[in-house]
Amino acid sequence: MVQSVAEHAPATWSNYWQDGNCLMFFFPLGFYYTLVHKVTHGKLFIGMYGVFIIYFSSCMIRLMILMTPCMCLMTAISISNIVRRGTKGIRH
After folding, report:
1. Is residue 1 situated within a structural domain?
2. Among 90, 84, 87, 88, which Cα is nearest to 37's?
């Protein structure tokens, strides 16, 4: 397969690191909280969106721009669960 434009090339791990930066640490934990821990329809939708967008962004680097909102949502879910568990000890 010949890529006519650089935007159509497959993404590399360095592209994910450049675009995601520190969000990459919490992104896999967001998958856990959406797809494994107390699954609801909303969490399942966000989790499946994450799975599909990771696949499609790995096929074409142009689709990395669609991955950013999903990465922000997954990171927010994981950080909110971490903070909730951390403050549970403070409240009691």
Report:
1. no
2. 84
Confidence (pTM): 0.78
Any domain includes 13: yes
- Which residue range(s) make up the domain with 34? 8-84
pLDDT, tens digit, 9 for 90 and up, residues 12-61: 777 777 777 888 889 889 989 998 888 899 989 998 998 998 888 888 87
Is 89 within a domain? no
Does residue 91 lie within any of the structural domains?
Answer: no
Per-residue burial over 17-37, b = 16 or more CB atoms within 10 Å of its CB, e = otherwise = eebbeebeebbebbbebbeee
DSSP state of 64: H
